[in-house]
């Protein structure tokens, strides 16, 4: 059978792409039925296909199981030549680890619920093998059409709750996904947490993969909005001062900061969804890449306010920019307003 899904970051053993195979299926099915009937549900057996740096994983299988006691899924890796006894022992160990993991996820979920978080969301708090520290990810689903009606993306009660959650330990990474993606994430949404393994769009996703994902998200909610320090270099001091003065004003006067001490920053996916880079480029801003942006309310309108500083390819300095511009994108009307903040000496303002 063909691959169910191409998994990213294939250079890590826990992020292996999986393709189905029937080679050990009969043995696996017999073993699960014999030792775990009524306790575990066999979901599928997939052959792990490693990338070239992980050729040692060649021939391994992933056996995906659902624990009927918790409703959560987990996986065991089967080595080439391993039989029923080895599989049984691995399943016992993996099931115990999964139940411990589920208990910790339910505790994290309860903490969020006590803070008042509600609606469509799921949580994942676990030790990251990649970073060696605890990480807490929260995926929230919201209807982007609210912005088109000049309404807040999240309910007032949810915003108040997250104004507390952002200060929990470890600092949660709160990503907001469009509500249209809820069917793809139905499995973790139903529980309120991400288990050791979840099937997303029909393909298995480990909790370690989920910690490094977020590509589908449109917004990041946080207590701070830190611009990159290199949007404009010190070699252009006047432009740099104008750039960071505008960013500081955007942050200080942001309506979400003033009401809830939080910010909403857009992802690249959001910018592309509204064709903002392309529209900036069409207005003469060369690459049209954006340097900093926040969701805000301006004169009753929900607006994306941002900074763009196009590279000056012909300036003889690889760090130079051709100017600093501010833009407002009005969600209700689709209008994109651009104004120059600062330009190099002798350059006329445009657009």
Automatic annotation (TrEMBL):
Protein name, entry field: Uncharacterized protein
Keyword field: Signal
Signal peptide from the UniProt entry: 1-25
PROSITE patterns tied to this protein: PROKAR_LIPOPROTEIN
Species per Swiss-Prot/TrEMBL record: Comamonas aquatica DA1877
Keyword match Signal: yes
Signal recorded as keyword: yes
């Amino acid at each position: 059978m063909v691959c169910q899904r191409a998994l990213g970051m294939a250079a890590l053993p826990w992020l292996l792409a999986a393709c189905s195979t029937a080679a050990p299926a009969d043995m696996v099915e017999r073993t699960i039925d014999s030792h775990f009937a009524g306790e575990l549900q066999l979901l599928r057996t997939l052959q792990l296909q490693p990338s070239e740096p992980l050729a040692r994983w060649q021939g391994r299988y992933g056996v995906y199981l659902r624990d009927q006691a918790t409703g959560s899924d987990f996986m065991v890796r089967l080595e080439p030549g391993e039989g029923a006894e080895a599989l049984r022992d691995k399943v016992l160990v993996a099931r115990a680890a999964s139940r411990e993991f589920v208990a910790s996820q339910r505790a994290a979920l309860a903490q969020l619920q006590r803070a008042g978080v509600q609606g469509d969301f799921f949580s994942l708090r676990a030790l990251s093998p990649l970073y060696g520290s605890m990480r807490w990810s929260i995926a929230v689903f919201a209807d982007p059409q609210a912005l088109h009606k000049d309404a807040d993306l999240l309910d007032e009660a949810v915003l108040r709750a997250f104004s507390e959650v952002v200060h929990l330990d470890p600092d949660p990474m709160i990503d907001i996904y469009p509500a249209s993606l809820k069917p793809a994430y139905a499995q973790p949404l139903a529980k309120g947490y991400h288990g050791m393994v979840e099937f997303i769009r029909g393909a298995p996703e480990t909790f370690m993969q989920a910690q490094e994902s977020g590509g589908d998200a449109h917004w990041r909610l946080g207590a701070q909005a830190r611009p990159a320090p290199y949007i404009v270099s010190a070699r252009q001091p006047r432009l740099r001062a104008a750039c960071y003065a505008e960013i500081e004003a955007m942050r200080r006067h942001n309506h979400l900061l003033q009401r809830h001490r939080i910010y909403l920053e857009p992802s690249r996916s959001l910018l592309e969804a509204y064709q903002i880079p392309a529209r900036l480029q069409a207005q003469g801003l060369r690459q049209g890449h954006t340097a900093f942006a926040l969701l805000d309310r301006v004169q009753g309108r929900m607006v994306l306010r941002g900074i763009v500083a196009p590279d000056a390819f012909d300036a003889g300095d690889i760090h130079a920019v051709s100017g600093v511009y501010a833009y407002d994108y009005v969600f209700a009307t689709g209008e994109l307003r651009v104004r120059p903040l600062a330009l190099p000496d002798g350059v006329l303002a445009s657009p």
